[in-house]
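Subject: Protein record for review, amino acid sequence with backbone structure tokens
Why sent: The fold of this protein is of interest and is recorded here as tokens.
Notation: Tokens come from a learned vocabulary of local backbone shapes, not from coordinates.
Attached in line: The record itself begins immediately under this heading.
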Amino acid sequence: MRKSDKRRSSSLLLGSVRVPLKGLAAAVALAVVATTGPATADGPDHGPVAEPAQQTQPGYGDSEGHEPGLDPTPERAPTSEVSWLSFPGGVFAVDSLGHTVRYRACDGDTGRVADPNMRVAAGVASGAVVVGGVAYRYRVPLVGRSEGTLEVIPRHRPPVELTGVVVTSPQPPTDPVAGARLFPLSGQLARVVADASLNPAGATVRDLSGRYGDQQIAVNGSLRPKAASVIKLWILVELLRRVDCGQVSLDDGVLVTPEDIVGGTGQLQFETFPQVVTLHRLAQYLIKYSDNVAANVLITYLGGFAPVNALIDSMNQRSTILARRMLDSAAAQRGEENYTSPDDVVSLLGAVWDGEILTPASRDLMIGFMREQTLNTKIPAALPPGVPVAHKTGDLPDASHDVGYYLIPGTETAVAFLTAGPMATGDETVRRMARTVYDFLVTPADGAVEE
């Protein structure tokens, strides 16, 4: 899906465009910090008590973020405080402001490591750390779509030099002129969001086809509502990453017991247990039916919250965290909640599409599962029949989301529509945002006029 020239393009001039939403800032802030009681994921609570939430470094998975605003057009390629290097089998994350790095690959995970001697100059972070007797010497540009290098130097073994594409959020466009044609969509989405008086809402949209130069736009992209079942995408990616590493096979079976059964969305709850269920079926049901049993079983299989949060941290997705299981009202009452943002969702979807976090085979499998989604009352319901989409919903009494891919040939696009507030009105807001994007995409480019 990704053209090789797009991976290595150095024509980097513009970042995402954000639209300020006057009058919504207070509501958005309340949506981020307010709780409405023991909300559950798509149904009544029958689930086990979750382990304590994964502790994260300050700034990773916390609620801090910048209010969306209108970025001025830069005269040169923008740099980011955080970048990660994608190479076969792993990632190397850099936080140039906090002077931390993280290596996470098939052969291990260093965790977040401080590098007080990190050098940041001319938009490039460089340095070296030693963890467990292995040295990691890096040179990572802070500009997306650049090429970075990492040298892994084990004791008593030859060093390994890795090169790969640098990923930022957002990725700069490959064609700023074509990207400018996507800007009017920001204003159209901003009007939809402003009209949603009961539902603080955010939308992030990234062109994947090149028609709009791979441009990304956002309206309230840092909104941080409860993630609901959208968090299941990260669970799936961590599982498929291990498949790519050869650590597990989707043909492997997992024993599911009666104690694993919870209600809400899904099909497994209606089967007879104990029984052995393959990882493939758990992964498929996780997305196709938004299966809560599959989600909880996979969390346990993967080792709890920590590995999924390590995946999130390695991609520098600061607004997202997995802190409780599905249907765990007790955890929700303790304040242990799953969160995400439109920007983080599109960061994940873009990395999956571009082959930066999964192999092409695993990417295609994931998108295939998303195309089978059976909960189709939001994005698909807003579009004309037959429009190809691959998506994942999220529902709570105080959240309504739909995220995924528009797969219109020649206009493939990643989208994330997230809302807080009452679910019923949130559903309608999501549908309005979804239709607004579709109508823009099917309008001839020379006919798209900013109102």
